[in-house]
Design a protein that fits this description.
It is globular, with a radius of gyration of 19 Å. The protein is of the alpha/beta class and 286 residues long. It is built from 6 helices and 17 strands.
Amino acid sequence: MWIANKWNDIEVIDCSHGEKLERWGERVLVRPDPQVIWQTEREHPGWQDFDGRYQRSKSGGGQWERGNLPQRWQVEYGDLKFYVGPMNFKHMGLFPEQAANWDFVREKIAVANRPLQILNLFAYTGGATIAAAAAGASVCHVDAAKGMVAWAKENATLSGLSDRPIRWIVDDCAKFVQREIRRGRRYDGIIMDPPSYGRGPDGEVWKLEENLYPFVELVSGVLSDDPAFVVINSYTTGLSPSVLTYMSERIFTKRFGGYSESRELGLPVTESGLILPCGATCRWQR
C-alpha cells in the first residue's frame, strides 16, 4: 500500500459505522465511506462536536449539515496549497490520499534531468497538475467540467504557480486525446483518474470496467518515444489493483519496457493506528 502520511493539514481521526471523522485544516468533518464496514466504538469527541457532516438520504444522494462550515478554506501540503470546501456527493475538492502519487510524480520529474511534458486527464481540481508544475514540468490539464478547471487554476495561483507552463483544457478526455494524436503532440508522462461511471458530452455511458482498457490503449498513442511514467487511478470498488498491473504491462511495458506496479492507496487513522484504504493506483515507469 502507498500511504499518504505526510499531511499536516488533513487527518483521518477515526472511522466507524460507515463514516470517517476527519480534520481539514481547523475544521472537523464527518463523511460517509463505503469501505468502513466495521462498527467500533466512537470515543473521540469529534463524533459529537463537528463543524460539518454529509448525511446520506435514503432516497439517494444526500446533503451537508454545515454547522460553522464556510464555503471554502485553504489547506497546504508542503509547498502546495489548495482550496477545499463542501461539494455535492460528500466531496471536498481534494483527495488527500493522492498525495502519495504527487510525491511519486515530483520525484520522477526531478530525476529525469530533462524537460518533461505531462498530460493530466480527468484532472479535477489539479492536485497532480500543481505537483508536476512545481517540480518543473510543462503540464496539460484536461477535465470536462469547466468549474473544476477554474478551481484548479485558482489552486495553481494559490501555490504561486500561475506563471508556469500549464495548458488549461475544458474538454472530453477521449476526444481531446484523439485530437492530440492527429496533431502529433506527444507527452513524457501521463496521469489519469477516470471515473467509475459517467456520461460523455453526447450522452455516451462510461463504465470503467468496460471502457478503461480501450481508453488506456488510446492514451498510449500520445506518449513520446522516451516516456518517464504513467499513473492510473481507480476508485472502482471490487476492481483489484493487479488488474491495473496486467493492463499496464500489456500496453506500456510491452511497448516501452520498464515495469508496472499497482497498490492500494491509504491514509493513516489516528485513533486506531491503522490504515484506511482509499482506492488503487498503477504506476508504470521506465
